[in-house]
TrEMBL record, chains A, B:
<feature type="domain" description="Glycoside hydrolase family 20 catalytic">
    <location>
        <begin position="176"/>
        <end position="505"/>
    </location>
</feature>
<dbReference type="GO" id="GO:0030203">
    <property type="term" value="P:glycosaminoglycan metabolic process"/>
</dbReference>
<dbReference type="InterPro" id="IPR029019">
    <property type="entry name" value="HEX_eukaryotic_N"/>
</dbReference>
<dbReference type="InterPro" id="IPR025705">
    <property type="entry name" value="Beta_hexosaminidase_sua/sub"/>
</dbReference>
<keyword id="KW-0378">Hydrolase</keyword>
<feature type="signal peptide">
    <location>
        <begin position="1"/>
        <end position="17"/>
    </location>
</feature>
<dbReference type="Pfam" id="PF00728">
    <property type="entry name" value="Glyco_hydro_20"/>
</dbReference>
<dbReference type="InterPro" id="IPR017853">
    <property type="entry name" value="GH"/>
</dbReference>
<comment type="similarity">
    <text>Belongs to the glycosyl hydrolase 20 family.</text>
</comment>
<protein>
    <recommendedName>
        <fullName>Beta-hexosaminidase</fullName>
        <ecNumber>3.2.1.52</ecNumber>
    </recommendedName>
</protein>
<dbReference type="GO" id="GO:0016020">
    <property type="term" value="C:membrane"/>
</dbReference>
<dbReference type="GO" id="GO:0005975">
    <property type="term" value="P:carbohydrate metabolic process"/>
</dbReference>
<keyword id="KW-0325">Glycoprotein</keyword>
<dbReference type="InterPro" id="IPR015883">
    <property type="entry name" value="Glyco_hydro_20_cat"/>
</dbReference>
<dbReference type="Pfam" id="PF14845">
    <property type="entry name" value="Glycohydro_20b2"/>
</dbReference>
<dbReference type="InterPro" id="IPR029018">
    <property type="entry name" value="Hex-like_dom2"/>
</dbReference>
<feature type="domain" description="Beta-hexosaminidase eukaryotic type N-terminal">
    <location>
        <begin position="18"/>
        <end position="153"/>
    </location>
</feature>
Amino acid sequence: MKLSLITFSALLPSAFALWPLPTGLSTGTTPLRLSKGFDIKIAIPNPPADLVAAVSRAKGFLANDKLQVLVVDRGASSAGAIANAKSLPSLTLSLAATPKGGSVKSISAEAVAPIESRVEGYTLTVPADGSGAVLKANSTLGLFRGLTTFGQLWYDWEGTTYSLSAPIQISDSPAYPYRGFMLDTARNFFPVSDIKRTIDAMSWVKINTLHWHVVDSQSFPLVIPGYTALSQKGAYSASSVYTPSDVKDIVTYAAARGIDVIPEIDTPGHTSVISKAFPEHIACAEAKPWASFANEPPAGQLRLASEATVNFTAGMLKAAAGLFQSQFFSTGGDEINAKRLFVCGSCYTQDNETQASLSSSGKTLTTLLCDLLEKAPSSGEEMVLDNPVKLANDTIVMVWISSADVQAVANTGFRIVHSASDYFYLDCGHGGWVGDFPAGNSWCDPFKTWQHAFVFDPVANLTAEQSERVLGGQSLLWTEQSGPENLDSTTWPRAASTAELFWTGPGGDVQAALPRLHEEVYRFRQRGVAANSLQPEWCALRPGACDLTA
Amino acid sequence: MKLSLITFSALLPSAFALWPLPTGLSTGTTPLRLSKGFDIKIAIPNPPADLVAAVSRAKGFLANDKLQVLVVDRGASSAGAIANAKSLPSLTLSLAATPKGGSVKSISAEAVAPIESRVEGYTLTVPADGSGAVLKANSTLGLFRGLTTFGQLWYDWEGTTYSLSAPIQISDSPAYPYRGFMLDTARNFFPVSDIKRTIDAMSWVKINTLHWHVVDSQSFPLVIPGYTALSQKGAYSASSVYTPSDVKDIVTYAAARGIDVIPEIDTPGHTSVISKAFPEHIACAEAKPWASFANEPPAGQLRLASEATVNFTAGMLKAAAGLFQSQFFSTGGDEINAKRLFVCGSCYTQDNETQASLSSSGKTLTTLLCDLLEKAPSSGEEMVLDNPVKLANDTIVMVWISSADVQAVANTGFRIVHSASDYFYLDCGHGGWVGDFPAGNSWCDPFKTWQHAFVFDPVANLTAEQSERVLGGQSLLWTEQSGPENLDSTTWPRAASTAELFWTGPGGDVQAALPRLHEEVYRFRQRGVAANSLQPEWCALRPGACDLTA
């Protein structure tokens, strides 16, 4: 029995479909197969229902993945070794310590706990000698992460589920506590089934946050109790909505998969659609030419100078937040950052209501914005770099314009989530989409490849103290040019690349990672998610053969 | 009753989902709906079975499209007008002239006739007064094109199929006889069902050629009688193949939809995979480093200096051609064009077999290539600009490297099909795909938008005489980074843009076209093809509102 320590940047055996790569991993070279009666046992009294369900799903994946190893013979040359391999009878899950108070928290509860308090680490031991495998963690959330890893250890050969790499010893925990994916359901609508399928896929690569950009200027699909006119008049159609029941379904589904759902309702910009139901609260609603007022059509932003509007907005945000269980709520603010302040200014300057309120109150736009944000029921807002907006100390700032802004934000003392357009925007590089402009380019050209995000350094140019404020990062899918039709193929596997960056930590090597990412793509497809091809299958079956230097 | 002549560059009524736009079209403003008993009649004795089937499909689309008009109220404000509209009882198809010899040719037969002899024009009259509609053509192929147009005239409002634009008078015929789509099934494999769905979609926009790049260096999915070892050893898997029965199915399916299937088997480059079964015929098979021998891995090309290889290749191509019914067969040649000749040279110089044959025969590579091409059973090969290869006069040259090469090819006197990478490659702009190269860009950056192709001028810088040699053009999907997962969303609606360019002719205006293209996207989705979003739905429902100047 030989154990070799493998670090995340080293070349793994030609096929080993772990994604993200565990932070501590050692493997052997002994074949092992799942016994016909293989079972997953939960050695926890009265286990939470979502852990029981997760075990059931894990068993389903083991039975149904049927992923053949990605080498030319797809495993045929190992058939003899597989047939003669010892059988793994079971995997047993247990908590390393008795929980305080004796009651075990569910995955769902742990998934939405304060972000820096979550415990996602685990240890997993798969012996080569036919004795049972053991998964231990300090939380059910950690057990769920370990279960996910266990499900990636196996290949199929003619109905036998096997590994060639036993014994396997994993001690794993994430480099960063925030690993997200942002979906915009306002530019184009996505049915609940698409969101749930995406949540499943996210969980497979240990993403723990769905940053749900649920409404925007173009449509308001969220049905908010007490404010239902917003969706009645602002959704694309009566069926293109998320009811409170849908939201609960999504939030529950996500939490059971270790994922916190952070809703985002942008303010004060990106709010044109509110004018359909509440015209009194929106300045410059659908004003023309739109390009003078907004970065994309339609124009319109909250009349922050109006006390009635501030009260309306605070009440609406509070009601919306009540639909979710996350500790965070994003109120955006991306129209008021430094680079776009002129846009707001241009609108407000021309809005009589705003000018009247400003002169009567003696307030500035900045103080008005402070009023609004302090009323908002959130502990997380998007960045306001050069605007001296007073934010709560526990605010998380998402740096989206450019990775070059990270250092400046770090200087403010706020915690940071990397969301930079120049690395993590999945929509870039598909040309301009506004009409009447044949030569238009994507504003954030070029296309962001998985490799580009994978080699991102989250702490570049930061001091050690500043680096500690980096909570993680996320991929983002803005949907001006996307919809259900290309959701899977546009998102996957690129969002998985970012997931590994923030789980395993920076320093990954694309050459070593590519064969694993191919296998993750093929596994996604086996599970019903249409992940996109990275290369010709000829390359996928020959690790390294399509490297530039091969 | 008011008729207004509308040309293809003028702004149509805000919603009118014709694509490609007919070359002659006049519309009115009278509402009209299909009667409950609406029928399509074929006033032709013993009509061909494929015409009868096409009529059946057209009736299915009329019943099932259920496409609501793309305006904010989706047609609600027209409900009264629709309810009170006269009913169209029928559409009657007839041939304008008695066919020679009295027997009517099938769509399938006409679809594969010599390209410049095909008759695709038709006239379509939809009166506003409740009398029947009339479709006339000089061929069943023309009737099929007219049926396709008829199917695009209608919207749905609560179960009623209606138009607001009667009377409608169309006199339509294509600007160019070749309107194609190329699919590469070698880099990644596509099941037959994907190809048939794509053929359906192609027929909806009157594309008449599937240029099927069936095999390449990476895989050989085509099962060729007498040469079955090629696919047995060269396909990605035993199930990733096209059997003779599959090919017949595809060719028949396409022909019945007015589409000729032109197979392409590249020679002498892009043939590495042949070495799996016939190593003796391939020089530099999988030679390393691949970048010294080929533009992408794996390296390998036919040993043209060997008489045995020439005979093998000619026999194999002839057997392959026997599976198809097209008058054309493409043997590629894109590794021997000017810009890549050094690649061949580099390989052949190092290949002992080639050097021995060359010195014993006294032949040059060019004369050897002539030998090969004269043996090939084709009348169409890809371009060989600076290589003095003797091609048959009826060869069609596909200009793929750059649109800048068109004039030079036109000077050679060959007919031209526009396939330029800088306008029509659908795969560009997704980053580099070779491994170990994080900063790699797509070689044909940037992404080609629908607008970019739409405003292409097929006769730019050509004399009138040269312009006559332009047969048309096509979109192309090379599949290094594509597969079944993104086939629909990558291809559509961009391939439709090119289809209109070559049917309606150049000079189209993207501003006027965009609302129609949105409707074609939505209609595609109603018919099960996952066409990609061009804009937020907010824009799709408000023609013109997202123009840069709106």
